[in-house]
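Recap quiz, item 2
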Amino acid sequence: MMSPRESLPPPDDRDTVLVVQNVSKKFCRSLKRSLFYGLQDIATELMGRHQPDPQLRYNEFWALKGVSLTLKRGEALGLIGVNGSGKTTLLRIISGLIKPDTGMVRVRGKIAPLIALGAGFSPILTGRENIYANMSILGLSTKQIEARFDQVVEFAEIGEAIDAPVYSYSSGMAARLGFSCAIHTDPEILLIDEVLAVGDIRFLARCHRRLHQLREQGTAFVLVSHNPQAILSMCQQAVYLQKGMMCMVGETEAVMAQYEEDLFLAGARKESNVLYLSPKPAEESTGLDVTSICFKDPQGNVLQTLISGEPAVLCVTMQAHQAMSQVNLRLSFLEMGKDGQTALYLGGSNDKETFQVTPGLYELQVELPYLGLAPGAYMLRVDVRREALFILEMIEAFSFTVQSNGRMSKSIFYQPRSWRLLPQTTATTSRRATDVSP
Amino acid sequence: MSGSDRHLPETIYTPESRLRQPKQLWRDMWRDLLASRDLAWRLMVRDISAQYRQSFLGIFWAFVPPIVAATGLTLASNAKVLNIGATDIPYPAYVMFSMALWQTFVEALNGPIQAVMAAKPMLARINFPREAIILSQVGQVFFNFGIKLILIAALFLIFQIPLSWTVVLAPVALIHLVMLGTAIGLILAPLGALYEDVSRGLTLATSAWLFLTPVIYPPPQTGLFAQLVRWNPVTPLLVAVRELSTSGMISEPGQFGFASFLAIVGLLCSWMIYRIAMPLVIERISA
């Protein structure tokens, strides 16, 4: 445990559960040196000395630098960044595992890390015994564990196997049990680090439901995930970390857009709704490169806004460097903000639309006579393949919005239709007449 | 579960050394010690049951080492290979009893390092009171001693050694012995988590240490060796347990008092060092 100083003057806002202020942390790249620095740090600490302005020692770097954020009850915050950008380090500092080198972290209430699922599980002991041990580690008293025990077992769907040793469990069962233990500790703040990938889809749905329930009860979340959809669907606010620095903070969608632009659009730019991808060097090319993506109207003008129910043509221009057959495209339209599920999938191979190319520039057009997508923000994933498996190109960064045509309320997709009122014919009248008369 | 009107405990993490607020540090240490009792009990039950469930012979292993050592030494002594002075109780009983005590000390000494090593993944991921793994280990030391006690009781019956009434005080000396071992182990534990040299060096040191402790021989009275044995802090504590159970007289009360003081103060200091060092160690051992 780390220097918890209790009962300081409470923060101004009663609802604030977490304040991170100007936190920095340095790490060392060499193991040997790192261990030596560890000794040095222990000695410094034991002498009660403290450097207010720590400098980097040889081979050290800032894993986090000047990070600040606040979190209120019931809020969810997403941490975004590539591997090694400091997300997990930040979570570890928040949970008090390691000390910050500068700055301050103030936490109100209990933190549960959904980081180490099943920490302390002993394979030899039964599920029942492991629940007790694991939840004790997570800070519950025996009484509290007893009160929650049935819920934990039921949630994990372990059933009869609860009295069998954990080594006889499938990996999914063990993970479910670990998740269930962690999620039933009733924390004020839940730190979730890439763990929403356990179990099958049905269990995943239960996890999400449970997390939703916790949110409604006022639990605050900090979520780290590489799955943009998980963050988009759960968090209103996001922090984008780049090499330990806060590169952007704000609305999740904007932050995510920036992140994805940085991640996928190295060398691409978007201009008046056309995504241009810069040509790849020869050694990176697989023989066919996508050069631009956009939507056009049937007259061939680039569409600035898409409207549900209006015609649109998706145009993908490609540069082929060699002759290939069986080229096909897969288009996935992901809806942002909601569950992030695929709203629409158009598969060239499903439609039996494969093409043959020789070196040259092509424009593939997919005609959508009526845009069926409901108003909202979408992301298009274009996946160009040769035959079924060989991926030539994968572009995941074309985002666009669809606007309503004013006739779309209460619908999740646009249904092309025409209404008609026909005058009643005599034939039906006479049949009715006969029906009524005996 | 979180009511908006509930008073939530607040925790603050800063880079400042916690020695700057010693009062707060001790208060936190005390609070965590109390908070870790439940967990320590769970961990102890977990470790002990896992250990015995994976063993066919079970508690047999607690008896064997002292019996083997005693048999070997008794044979050697009878054959005059070893020249061991007269002991106040029959030699086999003397060796077995002393060996059980020495082993308890060594277990207490190695306990913290082993506990930290075994709990590395847990330590690196969850912030639970760090005292718990140590308490659990100490509990296991006493549990193991409890089993050895069966052997010791059998010895006293077989050799018909009269018990002194002071045997009721023997646990005090035993607790001091375990405290001394834990204190030393606790200082070494954070280092041991960083460098493997520590546990290797400790194995070497304990085997040398055994010969400086009157376990297989009675306390020598004269010479440099006698001085070394006398100033070994384990000696008065271990001898005191033995004397309180049999003769009822502590022969060196001054030494005993000094060693006990060392054990208690040492334990408090090493606990503080352990607490301060652990976060810095965890940072370096990242799971």
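The first strand of chain B starts at residue 10 and ends at 13.
Chain B has a mean pLDDT of 87.
End of item.
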